[in-house]
Amino acid sequence: MKEFKGYQYIDGGVCAAKGFKASGVYCGIKEPESDSPLSNSKNDIALIVSDEICNAACVYTQNKVKGAPILVTKRNLEATGGKAKAVIVNSKNANTCNADGEQKAERMCELTAQALSIKPEQVIVASTGVIGQILPIEPIEKAMPRLVLGLCVCGNEDAATAIMTTDTVKKEVAVEFELDGKTCHLGGMAKGSGMIHPNMATTLNFITTDCAVSKDMLQKALSDVVKITYNCLSVDGDQSTNDMVALMANGMAGNALIDDENKDYEVFRQALYIVMMNMTRMLAKDGEGASKLLECTVSGADDLDTAITVAKSVICSPLFKCAMFGADANWGRILCAVGYADAEFDINKVSVTLSSKAGEIHVCENGSGIEFSEDKAKQVLLEDEITISISIGDGNYQATAWGCDLTYDYVKINGDYRS
């Protein structure tokens, strides 16, 4: 992971911040496919709890079809004025497009509240998994005592595992930094592998901090950073129904409350960026069937939105993604995707360079191809992390988008996702 001055990577994920505990267990939302105790029996429900009430901020999918947990979480945060104390989240069933969906999501909040002696409105609820199948509530009811009993400051790994669906690895990042002479922490966990596209995707992301940050500044920081991290992520072009990023701040670090855009706010926002950017990269690298992480940085833009639009256009191109799978330096596919981006710039000023730890190869200058070694290009593109650097002019703005290659395994995974 890239180093940032003044910030130190630490272990702990969502439990890295003072006052946060987590747990994760297997409850049987989806029954095992065999009698084997290891069949389908990975953790499928997680709980995160703060010792103190938190200011909370969320962003959600922009899909018109929204999972019931999103609707319930929105109502809960409106009822509490942006306060929360716990998160309950399950995998294997998205609780979406079901007549009893909201009732089940509300029941998950009630069960959590009863077990923790808090109000149901202080609970953030989330679900991920198959859409359109009724969520069985009985396994969750039975698991609640074990979930609460298992809460601990070392429970982050069990929780991170519980939210995985087709993910092949858990995704956690945490950093330590200083504010107002106090040591602060910010950490998170994420899930997501497929049905991922900009403007939120099949990702559930839970971030905690012990910084003292007002609700408004927390929401501003989250919304700003989402724009340049998760919203610049695409695996397959499908936008999910259940996406959520939830950020909770309990203030237990003891720093002076951040309630305006001052220097402390910028320090906090950078910590949030570091965690969310790294989790975005993890989500892209673990795309369904992926063999390569693709990182496209567009520079020289006249404004940020132009840079983002062009970078996303390249990352979302199926033909480009296939070329990267085959280690084919087909730069024409890159120029094609740059050209149909909904942004204004001079195509005659575009240059493209492909790079990896094996080296770099310059393939396009002033909108036209240049001579390069196909053998060297193949070596560069055979690596598992590829950087695509695109300049579109002399402007001062740049942006990065993340994605992955498109492989045979993507089709295999999604051909039998419900089974």
What does this structure look like?
It is a single chain. This protein has 419 residues and is an alpha+beta fold. It has 11 helices and 15 strands. It folds into 2 domains: 8-285, L-amino peptidase D-ALA esterase/amidase (4-Layer Sandwich), CATH 3.60.70; 293-415, Roll (Ubiquitin-like (UB roll)). Strands 1, 2, 3, 4, 5, 6, 7, 8 and 9 form a 9-stranded mixed beta sheet that branches. A 6-stranded mixed beta sheet has the order 13-12-11-14-10-15. Helix 5 (215-228) crosses helix 6 and helix 7 crosses helix 9. The longest helix is centred in the middle third of the chain and has 23 residues, at 263-285. The protein is globular.
Which descriptors apply to this entry?
single chain; 419 residues; alpha+beta; L-amino peptidase D-ALA esterase/amidase; Ubiquitin-like (UB roll); 2 domains; 11 helices; 31% helix; 26% strand; globular
Largest sheet: 9 strands, mixed
Number of domains: 2
Helix percent reads 25-40%
* H/I helix tally: 11
Structural class: alpha+beta
Q: In terms of per-residue confidence, which ranges show pLDDT below 50 for 5 or more consecutive residues?
A: 33-39
Q: Write out the CATH superfamily name of the largest domain.
A: L-amino peptidase D-ALA esterase/amidase
Shape summary: globular
Annotation, overall tally of beta strands = 15
Return the CATH topology of the largest domain. L-amino peptidase D-ALA esterase/amidase
Q: Do you know the CATH architecture of the largest domain?
A: 4-Layer Sandwich
Strand portion: 25-35%
User: What's the overall average pLDDT, rounded?
Assistant: 91
Element-by-element helix/strand order = EEEHEHEHHEEEHEHEHHHEEEHEEH
The radius of gyration computed from the alpha-carbon positions, rounded to a whole number of angstroms, is 22 Å
The end-to-end span amounts to 35 Å
